[in-house]
Amino acid sequence: MTIEPKILQYVLTLVEEKNFTKAAKKLHLAQPSLSYQITKLEKDLGVQLFIREYNEVVPTYAGSVFVSYATNILNQYRYLKNEIIDISELKKGSLTIGSLVSAGAHLLPNAISAFRKEFPGIDLKLVEDTSHELQDMVASGKIEICLLSLPIKNHGIETENILEEDIYLAVPPDHWLSAYQEVELSMCREEPFIALKNTNTFRTQSDELCQEAGFAPNIVFESTNINTCQSLVLADIGITIVPQMFLDESELKEKPKYLPFTINGKRPKRTLVVGYKNIGYVSKASRAFIEILKNISQ
Q1: Longest dimension (CA), the chain
Q2: The domain containing residue 59 runs over which residues?
Q3: Would you place residue 251 in the very low, low, confident or very high pLDDT band (cuts 50, 70, 90)?
Q4: At what angle do helices 61-88 and 5-17 cross, to 10 degrees?
Q5: Which of 19, 205, 239, 272 is the most exposed place for a label (fewest CB within 10 A)?
Q6: Peptide bond into 192 cis (omega under 30)
Q7: What's the short name of a Pfam family annotated to this entry (predicted)?
Q8: β pairing state of 192-196 and 218-223
């Protein structure tokens, strides 16, 4: 048997008013309708809840027990409604964000700061990992959203573009390519390359760019850190491909020569995206963070 919250409220109001007519008026019901609901409840429960006297109703022992539980249940119901409203209005809750280490270090601090100021009741958590692991975590629901770069291989993820940036070649300052203001990537087919490890999506994009230019890169060294790749360039070990955000914010005291390049006359771009599970629903907290991230990245 299921007892609706409104029936519990009928009982509590009747106890408070001690009279069917007064209780019905307070509940905006017809008196016969209230009497019917209470009688039906007693029949369904198999016990008498009220002693009906001439001008007053008094709860029985069973009625008193019912009232005690009904009061607690309705209080919990109100607490639940209020909490859900708070969550819906972003007054409280939690949000777990995933990010690539490199991209997150550049874009997330300002976004997190702005979000915390606007929604102080939302507890933010950050998970940093490889693109492959982050995609799996989003698709499985372990994290709500994550900052990634294209291409995305997991079909269980939907994406929204956050930032599009240019890509550059980083070469030693005295390298023969440094004499150029801009190069065609195919000019580098004989050059040794330093690359990120193949768990990184920017490595995937870099390999695809070289293939588009008509060659497979001769990779002589791999690293998980793009600044390490640039340090190896300065050591004259090879050249590397670098996203624009690392040009001005590099931790290196010395910097390689950065060259814009084209493939068949077109400048390539890197696209950073926010990914979330492809289920047709994005929480209000996730949506709010995405919009803040978009605004900051403009």
Answers
A1: 107
A2: 5-88
A3: low
A4: 130
A5: 19
A6: no
A7: HTH_1
A8: parallel
> Which residue has 């390689």 as its token pair?
256
Which DSSP state fits 213? Answer: T
b/e per residue 238-257 (b: at least 16 CB within 10 A):
bbbbbbbbbbeebeeeeebb
Residue matched to tokens 């996203």: 243
Give strand ranges (E) for the chain. Answer: 50-52, 57-59, 93-99, 122-128, 145-149, 157-171, 183-184, 192-196, 218-223, 240-243, 257-262, 269-277
Q: Has residue 145 been placed in a domain? A: no
| List of residues 6+ apart from 147 with CB closer than 8 A | 97, 98, 99, 100, 103, 104, 107, 108, 162, 272, 273, 274, 293
Does a structural domain hold residue 27?
Answer: yes
Q: Which residue bears the tokens 């006359």?
A: 265
Kindly report, residue by residue over 73-111, the tens digit of the pLDDT: 988 888 788 778 778 888 888 899 999 887 888 889 999
Task: Characterize the bridge pairing of strands 57-59 and 50-52.
Answer: antiparallel
Residue 245 domain-assigned (yes or no): yes
- Nearest 5 degrees, angle CA 60-CA 65-CA 68? 125
> Do 240 and 232 contact (CB within 8 A), yes or no?
yes
Q: Which of 165, 244, 231 shows the shortest CA–CA distance to 194? A: 231
As a whole number of angstroms, the distance between CA 39 and CA 93 comes to: 42
pLDDT, position 87: 80
Q: How confident is the model at residue 280 (pLDDT cuts 50, 70, 90)?
A: low
Domain boundary among 88, 122, 143: 88
Residue 256 forms part of a structural domain: yes
- Contact of 200 with 152, CB cutoff 8 Å: no
